[in-house]
Design brief:
This protein is of the alpha+beta class. It has three helices and six strands, in the order E-E-H-H-E-E-H-E-E. It is globular.
C-alpha cells in the first residue's frame, strides 16, 4: 500500500491513496483510515470512520463507472477529521426517498447522515469528492 502524506495548515499530514473502483478496495480504505486516526491519536473515531469510508467506497463503486477512486483522510481543523472518496463521475449522491425498499439497499447515505457530524459533495470539472466529517471529542 502506498500512502502519501501532504502537509496541511493545522500541522497534521493528510493521507490519501488511489485504489481500483472495486468492492475489495474498501479494506485498503479502512486500513488508511485506521492509520491516519492512530497517527493523530484519535482512536475513538476509528469505528465510525471505518464504517463511513466503507459506505463511501461502496457508493462510488456501485453508482459510478469510474476505474479508480481516491480515498483522502485529512484534518481541516483541530476538531474535525474529513474522510472523502473522489471519483470521476459528476452525478450527485441521492438520498433514498421514503417508501423505497430499504431492506436490500439504499441505506448508505442514511447511515452517513446519521453517523457523520456533517457531510457533503465537492464538485470538480472532472468529477467529485463525497466527504464526511467526524468531530473529535478529545479536542472539542
Amino acid at each position: 500500500m502506498i500512502v502519501s502524506a501532504q502537509p496541511h495548515p493545522t500541522g497534521h499530514p493528510g493521507y490519501s491513496e488511489t485504489l481500483p473502483a472495486r468492492e475489495e478496495s474498501a479494506e485498503a480504505a479502512r486500513k488508511l483510515v485506521r492509520t491516519a486516526l492512530a497517527a493523530w491519536d484519535l482512536d475513538e473515531l476509528t469505528d465510525s470512520g471505518v464504517l463511513l469510508v466503507t459506505e463511501l467506497v461502496a457508493n462510488a463503486v456501485k453508482h459510478t463507472n469510474t476505474r479508480n477512486i481516491r480515498v483522502v483522510v485529512s484534518r481541516p481543523s483541530e476538531r474535525f477529521v474529513r474522510i472523502g472518496v473522489v471519483d470521476k463521475a459528476r452525478a450527485l449522491p441521492q438520498m433514498v426517498k421514503p417508501g423505497n425498499d430499504l431492506l436490500t439497499s439504499g441505506r448508505g447515505l442514511l447511515l452517513i447522515d446519521a453517523l457523520a457530524e456533517r457531510w457533503g459533495t465537492d464538485m470538480y470539472r472532472w468529477g467529485k469528492q463525497v466527504w464526511v466529517e467526524l468531530l473529535s471529542e478529545s479536542t472539542a
